[in-house]
Amino acid sequence: MTGTLCGLTNKKPDFQNKCGVIKLESEFEEQIKKTNIEYEAVLKTKTDTIGHITMYSIIAVALFIAGFLLGKFIFDKGVISTVPLIVMGLGLGPLGIAFGPLNKYMTNLKLAKKKKQDLDILCKMYGYHYDINIVHNKDSLGNKSYDTDLKIRKTNNTY
């Protein structure tokens, strides 16, 4: 077994940080499109995530307050009951539901940002700069598709 071979020279790679004769082809263009689409798709979920956490946090706080006020009202009547504690405990459910999508958003954003940074570093290393315009499409059934306009140019600015 000889290991990984260069597709251009059919020899083992013999460089330290970057290859001097690399050719970035259509697979690289597809990777640029895919990585940028993933990144922008995650960014587009930010508003929904904030709305989700706000709505469920309000429900949780309302249940806590309702439980407290119910307990105060019942206690003022001279009765001790666990119902207010149960109502307040029910407020923990929406609170958990509120933070689940936030955790998912933060994780997805971190991964997408890392992929994009790695791609941009690779482009800069080999002297490529790209401009991409992504149009997000959604049909009546909610299926998403993307139209991209990618322009890649070679520059002299490299590492």
Could you characterize the architecture of this molecule?
This protein is α+β, with helices and mostly antiparallel strands and 159 residues long. The chain is 58% helix and 14% strand. The chain contains four helices and two strands; from the N terminus they run H-H-H-H-E-E. It has helices spanning 26-44, 46-76, 83-90, 92-125, and strands at residues 128-138, 144-154. Strands 1-2 form a two-stranded antiparallel ribbon. A hairpin with a 5-residue loop joins strand 1 (128-138) and strand 2. Helix 2 runs antiparallel to helix 3 (83-90) and helix 2 (46-76) runs antiparallel to helix 4 (92-125). The radius of gyration is 27 Å and the shape is elongated. The two termini are 33 Å apart. The relative contact order is 0.14. The model has no long low-confidence stretch (mean pLDDT 83).
In short:
The chain has 4 helices and 2 strands; from the N terminus they run ααααββ. It is an alpha+beta fold and 159 residues long.
Total beta strands: 2
Could you report the average pLDDT, rounded to the nearest whole number?
83
Compute the separation of the termini in Å. 33 Å
Spatial strand sequence of the major β-sheet = 1-2
Give me the Rg, rounded.
27 Å
Write the H/E string, N to C: HHHHEE
Judged by helices, strands and strand pairing, the structural class is alpha+beta
Topology:
Elements: H1 26-44, H2 46-76, H3 83-90, H4 92-125, E1 128-138, E2 144-154
Antiparallel strand pairs: 1-2
Helix pairs in contact: 1-4, 2-3, 2-4
